[in-house]
Each structure stands twice: as structure tokens, then as C-alpha cells.
Design goal:
- The chain is of the alpha+beta class.
- The protein has one domain.
- It is about 30% helix and about 25% strand.
- The chain has a six-stranded antiparallel β-sheet.
- A hairpin with a 6-residue loop joins β3 and β4.
- The longest helix is centred in the last third of the chain and has 25 residues.
Length: about 120
């Protein structure tokens, strides 16, 4: 299981009514990616909601928004293969792994949005 937070540094005012977006240094949403790939996100904006997605790629195709200068931050622990009644000992994720995932996420999101532009 992995935990992440999405920040958006440049959400245009014209796409969101006043009071419905967070400041650039505040999370837009937080999420969890389960070991089977399922993703759940919780919006931290004025209108709170929770949604689930079959994959990170599907979620980012809709909510990645590279044009908003979005930054997805993976928190530095992976929790998996925990036997019942065990103490949680997080496994550290290297900075390189975090950077690789961030690049992958942003590339896939940009590819999706480019495809959408071509379709219209």
C-alpha cells in the first residue's frame, strides 16, 4: 500500500469558482494505492468527496492536470505483506524511485491530455 498527496501550483481561477480550490501549498487531494493497483482519493478542497479508481493511470488521466503544474508526492513508506498482529515496519522508498514514479505519472498524464486535444 502506498500513500500520496497531490498539489496543484497553478489552477486557473476561471475553471474553479471562488473558494473551491486550495492554495498551491495545500493538498488538493490525498490518496492510497493498494497492492492490487486500486486507487482511492479524498478531495481536500471545499467540496469534499471520496472516489475510487481501478488504477493510478486511470485516476491521473482524469485528475493529473499537468497544465495546473500538478505535483504528486509519494510519502516515503510502503506497507505490504504484513502478517496479522504484527508491528508495522515501513520500508523506505528511495528518492530515485519517487522521482521515477513522478516522471512516469506526469508523462502518462501529458500523453493522455495530448490525445484528448487531438480527439477534439
Amino acid at each position: 500500500m502506498r500513500i500520496f498527496t497531490m498539489y496543484r501550483k497553478d489552477v486557473p481561477d476561471e475553471t474553479h469558482p471562488p473558494g473551491t480550490k486550495n492554495a498551491p501549498d495545500e493538498p488538493q487531494f490525498q490518496g492510497v494505492q493498494f497492492d492490487d493497483g486500486t486507487v482511492v482519493i479524498r478531495w481536500m478542497t471545499a467540496f469534499k468527496s471520496t472516489t475510487h479508481w481501478d488504477s493510478m493511470e486511470d485516476m491521473l488521466a482524469v485528475h493529473g492536470h499537468p497544465e495546473y503544474d500538478s505535483v504528486l508526492v509519494w510519502h516515503d513508506v510502503i506497507i505490504k505483506d504484513m502478517p496479522p498482529d504484527s508491528t508495522i515496519i515501513p520500508q523506505r522508498v528511495s528518492a530515485q524511485e519517487q522521482e521515477n514514479m513522478a516522471k512516469f505519472v506526469m508523462r502518462k498524464t501529458a500523453e493522455y491530455h495530448e490525445q484528448q486535444k487531438r480527439n477534439y
